[in-house]
Design brief:
- Pfam families: Ceramidase_alk, Ceramidse_alk_C.
- Its EC number is 3.5.1.23.
- By secondary structure, the protein is of the alpha+beta class.
- The chain folds into 3 domains: 436 residues, no CATH class; 60 residues, no CATH class; 133 residues, Immunoglobulin-like (Sandwich), CATH 2.60.40.2300.
- The chain is globular.
- The protein starts with a helix and ends in a 49-residue tail after the last strand.
- Bound molecules: 2-acetamido-2-deoxy-beta-D-glucopyranose (NAG) (5 copies).
- One 2-acetamido-2-deoxy-beta-D-glucopyranose (NAG) binds next to loops.
């Protein structure tokens, strides 16, 4: 054991070790939660949708796969964020380059993939269109993501062990989730009319009578020495938009909850193993989800109760068309319950597949990276000399309408380009002037905006694509939201090349990870594009966007099959000027309540007794959460008193950790009181199985007054009962000290910091990320 451990330690620097296991795998998880107050959330494009606390912390989950034979490696990181933006990825790359002194990890062999939650802080893109709702960049959002992702890789790297890796798949339906409602168990086609425009033979071939991809692909990682499971990654397509834009606590939404619940099942509940610390890491990665909604009951008019799941998605109110009234619903009674149901079903399906998966994934790793300018890409459409071209990025009028998962409230615009407001469009055109050539190239899109007229960096043109092979599984990271059919076509095309080229067998798998390796809107098929629902209106490079991207990925697959290592092309240069457009209000000062102190309790907990399912709440005078993000730590914590002798009060005892911000059962919410005071509420819903006893809630924050200082607050003691445990004594008999201060490390990991910038990243942007 010791010997193999020592060998393992060496392998990271000296490529010498050998082991009988077919793989060396490392898993790591790190907190990447950004600013938890007064920062716009990314996804719904709604500048009123701002953070006001944390429901569940956001995590980066990293997996490193090393081939012991060749010592080659690839890494995959799934992140609870809207999308892996170019700014985030380049920041991570720079950080890893410094920490690992240029070795091991770069964009070439590392995929950074977003989960696509719409409940994380915005401002982590350098393209102006994606900074619009947040009125610019938010450094804290970007830094939290870059740091958390790099830390997850760092932890995974130092956790590499001999492992067996298996792969499998299954449908997320009643075969993996007992009694799940069919056919929409955990995902639903939100643009069925658009999907129906694809050729019938093709629809049948891929999906039979169905209109959505219900398949989940999964990797299972098991420690080869102990036989213990180490981790799991699965890919399944569904928007993590169960929560809507009224919900203002930070959350990983349904996929975040699924990861949390799976990890808890494997690691134990929070009072046994603090959430977000491993050792088992479960990532619910995004699959092909462009047109896939979590709102399983379909779209209904909130005013009339009529169905609006049709090609128009509009409701009528006083003779006016209102797309903002047509909303996706279900399956829960409210959005919160829906999120939990969607997460649970994905978790249950993953567990079923995980349990039965025994097929080794095979051996060997490989990777190909390619950057391409999508604004002028030629592709031979039918392979017979019919050359078609992509266009300058433009957004159609149906983009402005939004979707039933999140209408924009701009009722002037609708799906399929109608209704469309002539005046607004005229106004938009004055700003961005699409040319006759744009209109011809983008036809039939009714162009609303040509973003790059304003400045070349409003919308991306150069995009990164990645293919990574882990044995018989190939992950294609795509910088956009492929729709169901677009994804099916592309996966088939990639797989054909890889199978023909002998890279994988017919039984191998190609998965497509949306919103990875960058972000550039949606990608519909040519047929869907003709009908210009939201997804088509947001397919920005014209009707051949999908053909172009597929062509790029097919060429990359050919390179992989030929063993070629081509120059990937120049990555986008993110200029300092575009990134430094930051516009959020600074926190100037925090004030305690008049006549009081930071940490004073305003409304204390109810002393109880409380039973599982009850919610305990405490409100305190705190400070602005943006003064310190408290990553890998917590604003709120729950503690249980552990007596030294249950029948002797005077024997004392100690507080043991029970739950924190990361837990589903806790909520930390913030609101401003008056001009500069903050009220924070920490709540805890008593979970099943928690030991009975005496509990308390604790707050920890940072206040700005002169400098920034740590502040604390302790709520009262309350009683939790459960069926087994009897309370040995009453609270007034107890003399209980406040709980310990929990660790809030400024620099959680001790890492080397050589002052080197990768040569290919030097330039105008240096130092700005
Ligand atoms: C799943 O649902 C289908 C359609 O309702 C039904 O025919 C089938 O028997 C169900 N299977 C299981 C395992 O429940
Ligand atoms: C998976 O297997 C574990 C251990 O054998 C078991 O506890 C669990 O219930 C199984 N889960 C499913 C969904 O089959
Ligand atoms: C190429 O093939 C397509 C589809 O078969 C056909 O419509 C088109 O006319 C062909 N073009 C040429 C130049 O042969
Ligand atoms: C706990 O306290 C009781 C009552 O004072 C005493 O009888 C017992 O020995 C104590 N147990 C231990 C393990 O000290
Ligand atoms: C978070 O804190 C734990 C315990 O203090 C530590 O083991 C872990 O390495 C930290 N994670 C990061 C990413 O710093």
């Amino acid at each position: 054991m010791l010997k193999s451990f020592l060998l393992l330690s060496c392998i990271l620097t000296v490529a010498e070790a050998s082991t009988d296991a077919p793989w060396l795998v490392g898993t790591g998880i790190a907190d990447c939660t950004g600013p938890a107050a007064e920062v716009v959330m990314m996804g719904y494009g709604d500048s009123e949708h701002k953070t006001a606390g944390i429901h569940m912390r956001l995590y980066a989950r990293a997996f490193i796969f090393v081939d012991p034979a060749s010592h080659d490696r690839v890494a995959f990181v799934n992140v609870d964020t809207w999308a892996a933006t170019e700014a985030v990825i380049q920041g991570v790359e720079r950080k890893l380059h410094a920490w690992f002194q240029g070795q091991h990890y770069s964009r070439e062999n590392l995929i950074v993939a977003g989960s696509h939650t719409h409940h994380g802080p915005a401002g982590a893109s350098s393209y102006m269109l994606f900074q619009f709702s947040s009125a610019g960049r938010v450094h804290q959002s970007l830094d939290a993501l870059v740091d958390g992702i790099a830390e997850a890789v760092w932890l995974a790297h130092h956790n590499i062990k001999p492992a067996n890796v298996f792969f499998g798949n299954g449908m997320v339906d009643n075969s993996t989730v007992p009694n799940c409602p069919m056919p929409n168990c955990a995902n639903r086609q939100r643009s069925p009319s658009s999907f129906m425009h694809n050729p019938e033979v093709e629809r049948r071939k891929f999906f039979g009578e169905d209109n959505a991809d219900r398949n989940m692909d999964l990797l299972k990682i098991v420690n080869a020495e102990t036989g213990k499971p180490m981790g799991m990654v699965n890919w399944f397509g569904v928007h993590p938009t169960s929560l809507n834009s009224d919900y203002n606590l930070i959350s990983g939404d349904n996929k975040g909850y699924a990861s949390y619940a799976f990890e808890q099942d494997m690691n134990g509940p929070s009072w046994v193993q603090r959430a977000g610390r491993g050792p088992f890491v479960a990532a619910f990665a995004q699959g092909v989800s462009g047109d896939i909604s979590p709102n399983l009951l379909g779209a209904w008019c909130t005013n009339s109760g009529e169905k609006c799941d049709n090609q128009w998605s509009v409701c009528w109110s006083n003779g006016q068309h209102k797309n903002s009234l047509c909303l996706g619903q279900g399956p829960g009674r409210d959005k919160y319950e829906s999120m939990k149901i969607l997460g649970s079903r994905q978790k249950t399906a993953a567990k079923t597949i995980f349990n039965r998966t025994t097929t080794p994934v095979g051996t060997g790793v490989d990777h190909v990276l390619r950057f391409a300018d999508l604004s002028k890409y030629w592709v031979d459409r039918d392979g017979n000399g019919t050359w078609v071209q992509t266009c300058e990025p433009c957004l159609g009028t149906s983009f402005a309408a939004g979707t039933t998962d999140g209408p924009t409230g701009m009722d002037e615009f609708g799906q399929n380009m109608t209704p469309s407001n002539g005046f607004m469009q005229f106004f938009a055109h004055m700003l961005t002037l699409p040319s006759a050539e744009d209109k011809r190239c983008q036809a039939p899109k009714n162009i609303l905006l040509r973003p790059n007229t304003v400045r070349e960096t409003v919308f991306p043109k150069v995009l990164g694509f990645q293919l990574v092979r882990i044995g018989q599984m190939v992950v294609a990271a795509v910088p956009g939201e492929f729709t169901t059919m677009a994804g099916a076509r592309t996966k088939e095309a990639i797989k054909k090349i890889l199978v023909d080229g002998g890279v994988i067998e017919e039984t191998g798998t190609v998965v497509l990870n949306n919103v990875a390796s960058g972000y550039a809107g949606y990608v519909t098929t040519y047929e869907e594009y003709q009908h210009q629902r939201y997804e088509g209106g947001f397919t920005t490079y014209g009707p051949y966007t999908h053909e172009a991207m597929t062509n790029i990925l097919v060429q990359m697959a050919e390179d992989m099959a030929d063993g070629k290592k081509n120059y990937p092309g120049a990555r986008p240069q993110l200029t300092r000027k575009d990134q430094d457009w930051e516009n959020i209000d600074r926190v100037l000062v925090d004030d305690p309540p008049i006549g009081g102190q930071f940490g004073d309790v305003k409304e204390d907990v109810h002393p109880g007794p409380h039973w599982p399912g009850d919610t305990v709440r405490c409100t305190l005078w705190g400070a602005h959460p943006r003064n310190h993000l408290q990553r890998n730590s917590s604003f709120g914590t729950v503690w249980r008193w552990q007596p030294n002798n249950a029948s002797d009060v005077s024997a004392g005892g100690s507080w043991v950790f029970t739950a924190d911000d990361s837990d589903f059962d806790t909520m930390f919410s913030w609101r401003r009181e008056g001009i500069s005071a903050s009220l924070v509420t920490i709540s805890w819903t008593v979970p099943d199985g928690v030991p009975g006893g005496w509990y308390t809630i604790h707050y920890s924050g940072h206040a700005r007054k002169g400098g920034v200082t740590r502040i604390h607050g302790a709520c009262g003691v309350f009683e939790v009962q459960n069926a087994e445990a009897m309370m040995p004594f009453k609270p007034d008999e107890l003399v209980i000290p406040p709980p310990p201060e929990i660790d809030t490390p400024d620099m959680p990991l001790d890492r080397p910091r050589p002052p080197r910038t990768p040569p290919h990243l030097r330039g105008a942007e240096q130092g700005s990320i």
